[in-house]
Amino acid sequence: MFAISRHALIQLLSANISPENISYNATVIPSETEKGKLRHADGTAIDVDILIVSDGSKSRIRKCLFKDEKIIQVRENEVVNIIKNKDIASSVENDFMKFHHDQGGLTFGILKLSHDTILWYSQFDNEKYLINECSSDNLKTYMLEVFADWDPLVSSIIQQSSYENVHLWCVYELEELNPFYKDNIVFIGDAAHPLIPFTSQGVTSALKDSHTLTKYLVEEPNFTEAFRKYEADRKPEIETHINNGRLLLNQFLLPIDQQTDRILPISYK
Length: 269
Ligand SMILES: Cc1cc2nc3c(=O)[nH]c(=O)nc-3n(C[C@H](O)[C@H](O)[C@H](O)COP(=O)(O)OP(=O)(O)OC[C@H]3O[C@@H](n4cnc5c(N)ncnc54)[C@H](O)[C@@H]3O)c2cc1C
What we know:
The protein is of the alpha+beta class. The protein is 33% helix and 22% strand.
C-alpha cells in the first residue's frame, strides 16, 4: 500500500515548475462570449493554444461543453477526518485497516499517515444513513452514535478524535462518459472521468492521464492527433474501472453474507 497526501503530491509536482507559472486560489470559468475560451473570475481572458482542464468530478468547464451530460450522485457518502494525535497513531499499526458492518452499507477505515497523524473515514449508504447537516458538530454526533458499539479500536478513535478537519464528501459519476476533448480543450483526471472511491483508482488514473497526454503532446506535432491518441489509450482502462466501481458499490450495499467471496476491494484491469 502506498499513500500520499494531497499536500505532499502538490509539493512534489510543483517542485520543477517556476512559481510565476502557477496561480493558486484563482477561479477559471468558461467565457460566455468566446467559444472554447476561458477567463479568470475577474474577467481577464486566458489566451492559449490548448487548454488542459482538471477541475474535478463536477467540472463546470465540461458541463459547459457537453450540455447534455448527466451527472448522478452515487449511493455512498464519506465522512473523512485527518487528526494529529500521537496516542491514537501509536495504537494503530502501519497497515491499512477497514471494518465492515455485517449488514452492509457501512465501513470504517483507518490509515496511519505518520507517527502522529492518522486519516480515518466512514463510507455509508446514503439511503440508509441520513446526514442532514454537515457541520463538524453534527458529523461528530453522527460518528459517536453510529460507531458507539463497534470494535473498541474504532469507538475509542471516534471518541478521542478532534473534529476540526472533518468533512462530508458526496460522490458523483457520469451516467455516460463524454469525449475526453473538444476542439482545443482536453480533460484529464476526474474532469474527464469521475471515478468512485471504491475503485481506489482516482488519483492513479489522473496521474496516468497527465503522463499519457504529455507523451502524445511531445510526440505529435498536431495537438488534435495527440488528444485523439490520449483518449484512445486511456478510455478503455477507465471504462473498466467504472464498471468495477459499480460492482464494488453493489457489493458494499449488501450484507456481508451475501457478498461475493474473495472480491478484491479495488478495481484492477
Ligand atoms: C471521499 C473520497 C475518497 C476518495 N478516495 C480515494 C482513494 O482512496 N484513492 C484514490 O485514488 N482516489 C480516491 N478518491 C478520488 C480522488 O480524490 C480523485 O479521483 C482525484 O482527486 C482526482 O484528481 P483531479 O486532480 O482530477 O481532481 P480534484 O482532486 O477534484 O481537483 C480539482 C481541482 O480543481 C479545482 N477547481 C475546480 N473548479 C475550478 C475552477 N473553475 N477554477 C479553478 N480551479 C478549479 C478544485 O478546487 C480542485 O483543487 C476519493 C474521492 C473522494 C470524494
